[in-house]
Amino acid sequence: MKIHKHQSLLVMAVLAALLMIPSSSSASVSMTLPQYVNEILLNNHSLRAGVKNVEAGYYSVLAAVGYQRPVASGTFTGSYVTKQATEENVFAGNIGIRLSQRIDINGSYKLDERQNILGYEVSRANFDNSVNTLVAAAEETWWSAVLARENMKLQHEILLQRSENHRVTMEKYNQELVPRLDIVRSEAQVVEAETLEKNAQTTYMNLIAELSLMAGGLDVEPIDEELKVPEFDVALNFEDALQFRPDIRAARLNVERAKLVKKLTAKGMSPTLDYAFQFTPWSDPEAYATPNNQQIGGSLILNVPIYDGKETKYKVFNADRLIQAAEANLLALREQTRRDITVAMNNWRNASAAEQDRKRQVERSEEELRITELMYGEGMGAQIDLINAQTAYQSVRTEYLNAVKNMYVALVAMRKAIGDYSPNEDGTWGEARSLYGKGNDILGEPGTKTLRNNIRNRINKKK
């Protein structure tokens, strides 16, 4: 907003500040954090895509093991010859039904089905990890926006305060009680406060845009309610984190799957047995087809590989190295989890201590500023002392807000580190997600959960 020279600096500063504050008539929807998280789970486009990819993976499993089931086919053949030997216009044809299947004589069917199912489970765990990551990012952005709004209010208060100080300085100058230098200094303080408020407004609006992106494009903003200092409410348990963190679950499943693939690959030189059944319900003439009309035929084909150019040998070597890679990745994720929990805990302790320190500093700085303003108003203090007191007060209040924000961010990091924002393997939600309303599912998630359980039941029946 442009400030005209002929207008009062105080009035213009106040008007500019009011224009910077978001209007209540904005199209943005105010909501609580639980409402916002539910909005993400229902409308985030990345999660929608992830759900559909998981569901597609289920049907991919069913398709991959289709060769294990019997295959039925029907055939119709016919021919028409205008002249054959002594006969003319001869028609011959038949209808046949064929049923064939490869008989699992080496146990590869079960291994192949299980490794495909585990591949689906890995994709499901990876999706759960994306949920954990997204919801954690959403909550961190949420609290950053809440604190950014508080900072915006703070900068607005500072602007009003400095504008009032400038007004007092102008009155003293008109009474020839202070030099022109004091006017220049007070004006500079007001301009600086305006800049800081604009920067705070920009930061807040950028965070609002980020919240909108994660909510599927819905314009949202945190509801304006009393900001509370968070308490540590995370049930910290490293072993539970190893059990429920989705990326570790995916890594653990990858190890299991890699071992199954190696067993399956090792059967590359195993013999195979194919069975076929054929029935000819009709043929004309009756001896046209083999088997003839109304006859049944069957066949068994045993294939015993002798040499495959060492293909199986090197595939087994490849599978063995993939097992080692999967095991190393699992160990790396375990150590990363330990690191994530330790760092989050250290950050929480640091932010918590900083909040207490900054709180005491704010109280002292506030009292110092009050006394300095009183002395300056009575003509007993220097303007430079007032400016220093204002700057110190602004600094410690800003640092206090940052300490509170860091406390929220540390809690979010802790919950993310133990996988608390994602569904567990059985489809139930972690503790943090339960705080936002247990039973609110991701769009399509009930379907994927049902599919997952159906497959698991099939595995258990075969064991």
**Through-space gap between termini:** 73 Å
Strand order of the largest sheet: 2-3-5-6
Averaged pLDDT, please? 82
Q: What Rg, in angstroms, do the CA atoms define? A: 37 Å
Number of domains: 2
Low-confidence stretches: 1-26, 431-460
> Given the structure, what is the number of helices?
11
Q: Write the element-wise H/E pattern from the N-terminal end onward.
A: HEHHEEHHEHHEEHHHH
As for the CATH topology of the largest domain, it is: Outer membrane efflux proteins (OEP)
Biggest sheet overview? 4 strands, antiparallel
What does this structure look like?
With 463 residues, this protein is an alpha+beta fold. It folds into two domains: 9-64 and 107-270 and 310-462, Outer membrane efflux proteins (OEP) (Up-down Bundle); 69-103 and 271-304, Single Sheet (Outer membrane efflux proteins (OEP)), CATH 2.20.200. The protein contains eleven helices and six strands. It has helices at 9-20, 33-43, 45-64, 108-174, 180-214, 238-244, 246-265, 311-377, 383-417, 431-434, 445-462, and strands at residues 29-31, 71-84, 87-103, 220-222, 272-284, 296-303. The strands form two sheets. It has a four-stranded antiparallel sheet with strand order 2-3-5-6, with no helix packed on it. The protein has a two-stranded parallel sheet with strand order 1-4. Strand 2 (71-84) and strand 3 (87-103) form a beta hairpin. Helix 4 runs antiparallel to helix 9 and helix 4 packs antiparallel against helix 11. The radius of gyration is 37 Å and the shape is elongated. The two termini are 73 Å apart. Mean pLDDT is 82; it is low at 1-26 and 431-460.
